[in-house]
Amino acid sequence: MITLDGHSLTIDGLWKIASEAAPCALTEPARERMRASRALVDKLAAEPRAVYGINTGFGPLSGCRVPADDLRQHQINLLSHLSVGQGPLFNDRETRAIMAARANALARGFSGIRVEVVELLVSALNRSILPEIPSEGSVGASGDLVPLAHMARMLVGLGHVRANGRRVPASDALSPVVLESKEGLALVNGTSVMTGLAALAVHEAGRLLSWAELLSACLFQALFASPEVLCEQVHHARGFRGQSAVAERIAESLRTHPEYRREIDQHEWGTHAKPVDPGVEIQDPYSVRCAPQILGAIQEALWHIDYVVTRELNASTDNPLVFPATGVVIHCGNFYGQQISMTCDYLRIALAKLALLVERQLDRLVNWKYSMGLPPLLAGGDPGLNSGLAGCQLLATSLAAECRLLSQPASVQTIPTNANNQDVVSMGCISAKMTAELVRKLWTLTAIQALALTQAGDLRPAGTMGTAYRQLHDRIREVSPQLAADRPLFEDIARVSSLLQDNGTQTRFLRPRTEPHGRA
After folding, report:
1. Catalytic residue among 52, 260, 307, 370
2. Which of 60, 260, 301, 483 could pair with 380 as two cysteines, CB 3.0-4.6 Å apart?
3. Closest to 445 measured CA to CA, from 482, 415, 404, 473
4. What φ, ψ does residue 320 adopt, rounded to 5°?
């Protein structure tokens, strides 16, 4: 059971709710805080003073007063005028992440929403009753207003939901509530869409980095590269913890090969003379030699990004905020998604760099000028008659180019809207969606690299692969047979991508990441 208390939800916890349908529940302290904040809202609603979202219009209409008799209709009208979303619906995993992120934010107890409304949201999540949330419409300024309005419609019995594999009216799937003053605003006025998507991306980015480390270790073996570049003295001399951690993890995978274990454990590099014969390279290319530096920088980025996203998962991001301990309501701008927008930009830069590294490592395998004797394009049959992984490299190049385009920042693309009330916006949801798209492409690119390394293992002499490399090779061969002659590989790529994303496969092959999250 994953607890939702507004303070302790982790990225891994959100992933379990979103991807594994782990049940979740509000804690009693969270309920008590929500009851206290709701009592203050009820008190304020009965007073003649103007409080935004309770008895005023929204956004540029905040100067308009709403009569007490219309406060309930006021909340429905909010959902109605924001229900304009277009484009593809968020998938089930994304929808569950959005719902859990919003419920957890409301559980902090500063939003003035009744417990029963949030309980209904959590109940729908646990019963896999999922609202239809279009992916287009948020500028990430007053939170993710449009997509969250589509989520909230379900709670009042409007629109359709996905339940038990069927599309049914929301009113048939659950007992709707009647929203009281401010409750519609509490549901829509937050960063939970961009934050839920960002949390999913951070989780997957960590897994992609782990695969990059293991596949880099396989690449060392396929290209007979020197483990000298993994020497801990080198990385300690620079001083970045992420770089040292990555080098250590690559070295641990290499230690499953007896010859590499001997070289690493004897630690004799620097004491043996390099060959002086003309044309003999004494250093490996950057895509191998600098893998710890590149992947280490990505690790450092992920530690920071993990911290920011975790903080936002457990933040109050609506307006106004209600503080029952002091009896005040404060108008503010916590709904502004700049942290998530910039953080997702940062994550895409890191992942785009990973994509470019993977593409270059792939070229080292298929380009026979540099592959240390491997057949051209890793062809399984006669080269010329067979083109091996030539098509796969074309796809990889295309994906790497798209990843590079997706690395462009969204957080600076502000356009004023809402009658110039939202005169500077974060574009956080757009940034998070771009990140999700880049992650999908990077899984495919990583699958191509894994296929190439598996084919290279088949084409090398016995003993080339250490235990970790051999075990991964054998597992991939269960879903993708050896390429003995050209055949269509689009289904192989998809199967290997699914295999790499499988939790069981990850548990079996990826080393635990023991570094504390959120501390760079």
Report:
1. 52
2. 483
3. 404
4. -80, 165
Q: What does the block give as tokens for 325?
A: 């301990």
Q: What is the pLDDT of residues 452-504, one digit of tens each?
A: 999 999 999 999 999 999 999 999 999 999 999 999 999 999 999 999 999 99
Helices (H), 367-459: 390-406, 428-459
- Which residues on adjacent β-strands are paired with residue 169? 160
Residues ≥6 apart with Cβ < 8 Å to 426 = 139, 140, 141, 336, 337, 338, 340, 341, 411, 414
Q: Which two tokens stand for residue 314?
A: 């457990």
Instruction: State how beta strands 166-169 and 160-163 pair.
Output: antiparallel
Q: Reduce the DSSP state of residue 485 to 3 states and report it.
A: coil
52 flagged as catalytic: yes
* Residue closest to 451 by CA, chosen among 486, 497, 485, 484: 497
* Assigned token pair, 511: 């080393």
Read off the pLDDT of residues 151-190 as tens digits, 9 standing for 90 and up: 999 999 999 999 988 999 999 999 999 999 999 999 999 9
Torsion sign (Cα): 331, 55, 322, 78: negative
Residue with tokens 């470019």: 356
Q: Residue 48, by phi and psi: left (phi above 0), alpha (psi -120 to 50) or beta?
A: alpha
* 295, 209 Cβ separation under 8 angstroms: yes
Residue 387 contacts residue 379 (beta carbons within 8 Å): yes
Tell me how long the chain is: 520
Q: What is the DSSP string of 233-275?
A: HHHHHH--HHHHHHHHHHHHHHTTSHHHHHHHHHT-TTSSPPP
* Cα–Cα distance, 265 to 287 (Å, whole number): 24
Phi–psi pair at 220, nearest 5 degrees = -50, -45
Distance (Å) of CA 308 to CA 37, 176, 219, 262, 270: 26, 34, 33, 41, 41
Q: Which three-class secondary structure state does DSSP give residue 88?
A: strand
In degrees, rounded to 5, the angle at the alpha carbon of residue 327 between the alpha carbons of residues 326 and 328 is: 95
Distances (CA, A) of 371 to 166, 378, 398, 453, 476: 52, 9, 22, 12, 21
Q: How far apart are CA 330 and CA 327, in angstroms?
A: 10
Please report, as a single letter, which amino acid is at residue 430: I
State pTM to two decimals: 0.95
Tokens of 404: 């590079």
**Paired sense of beta strands 134-136 and 129-131, if any:** unpaired
Which residue is it, tokens 């997509």?
Answer: 147
